[in-house]
Amino acid sequence: MDVEIHSVLEEAAVTIMLHADPLEQEAQAQGGLQERRMERERQELAIVNGRIQSVMTAIEDGLYTPALKTRMQQLEDPAARLRASLQIAGTHQRAVLTAPRRFTTQARKPIAALRERDDTETVLKLRRMIGPVAMTPAAGQSGLRFTLRTRRVCEG
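The structure assignment produced for this chain is given below.
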């Protein structure tokens, strides 16, 4: 049974390393899309901030009216929304860009150790990273079949 689990883990290790570059490329592509969206939001925020500044200048020049107060409030809402969106998107973008690389970097060490030696600590560390190994009866045969329960392993 340990040999079968070891072979499943070895197969998972090979799959992880095969998909490391495509995952990195996908993260970069998603990061590019996110960056373009953030740039649009920065431009919108600059426009809104310019309008807010115009209203502030009018108020400072003594043209304070209830309509200006209402306009200021109308401008503050989208400005706050855009600032929050940019802050959240920046944090999310860093996580998206670094998750595949971080996971692959963390996985390399136990994968290399598993190839050198077959100790319980290494097997358990790798199993924690990639998820549980399912043990099911083999179809039409005696014995068991070992497979990984799939899950996204590189989420931030």
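Interim note for the steering committee: The beta strands are 133-137, 144-148. Helices lie at 2-60, 66-116, 120-130.
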